[in-house]
Amino acid sequence: MRGIICYYSGSGNTKLACRYIAKNIRNIEIDLFNVVKDNTQFRERYTVVGFATFTDFFGVPYLFEKFIENLTPQNHKPAFVFNTYGIISGKTLKTFVGLVTAKGFNVITGHSLHTPESFPPMIARGLSNKNAPNEKELGKFNNFISELDQSIKDVQDGKEIKKAKINIGFLNSILPKRSRTKAREDMGEKYVDESLCIECGTCKESCPYAAIELNPKPVFDMDKCYGCWACYNHCPQKAIYTKKFRGVGHYPKPNKQLQEKLGG
Ligand SMILES: Cc1cc2nc3c(=O)[nH]c(=O)nc-3n(C[C@H](O)[C@H](O)[C@H](O)COP(=O)(O)O)c2cc1C
Ligand code: SF4
Ligand code: SF4
After folding, report:
1. Which ligand is nearest to the CA of 56?
2. Which of 64, 65, 170, 186 is 20 to 30 Å apart from 195, CA to CA?
3. Residues in Cβ contact with 243 at an 8 Å cutoff, skipping those fewer than 6 apart
4. Cis geometry, peptide bond prior to residue 121 (ω within 30 degrees of 0)
5. Positions in the chain short of pLDDT 70
6. What is the distance, to the nearest Å, from the Cα of residue 51 to the centroid of all Cα atoms in its chain?
7. How many CB atoms lie within 10 A of CB 257?
């Protein structure tokens, strides 16, 4: 028996956390499936399916919503949901449960992990949370993994697993998900400092919405852009900038502290 985690990770925090989950689950081998790079259906043979993403404007990123919506309907296949967040998750986990349940999965558990911030406007304002998760948060994450492991064992033993009760807390529950139009407007036009750009194509490769063409410098299609900041974060030259943010707040990959905690 095998399990799978389907993940979307802009800067690698979620991917690292998924690897950590996979490493610490004893009762089953877990494969990781990057929904951006391997955008096909995962195979039916998996006993349990995990869904993992980062929080994007208090919700599930558009790309991941679409991935779930396009899955074939399931018949109570056990699933779990997981998200990372930099400051506050909002309704991410609840939305997640709704989306996955609507596809016919039986959501047996879910968890949100506090991680360093990857949203440049927040980092530029000094809200990088570079030491997240703290000891208590890491402890809760480990408990979640142990409970998940036990639930997987119960599934293997043919026991019936109850639907999870996901409690996101009062503060998260009152935060509305922000619209994609607002996210796009917030980021605004993107510009390229031509004196810095080395035409390496990393921005195009990192754009999950195929909104960048190279000519030979990047050209942005604003209709396709979802304001995810991946191009800004990943440009090795810090050549991409917006009206409000230039040369600040980049988070291209999990920081050293997170790598040490999660064994990257
Ligand atoms: C476009 C964008 C929007 C974000 N929105 C939120 C948010 O609403 N709340 C929050 O706590 N963190 C938010 N974050 C931070 C990320 O959720 C967090 O840093 C996460 O761990 C990044 O995971 P990743 O490295 O797997 O992409 C946002 C990050 C980005 C890039
Ligand atoms: S990632 Fe940066 S340096 Fe590379 S092509 Fe894009 S803008 Fe230019
Ligand atoms: S152009 Fe940049 S901000 Fe827009 S969707 Fe692509 S990577 Fe994200």
Report:
1. 1
2. 186
3. 188, 189
4. no
5. 39-44, 177-180, 264
6. 9
7. 14
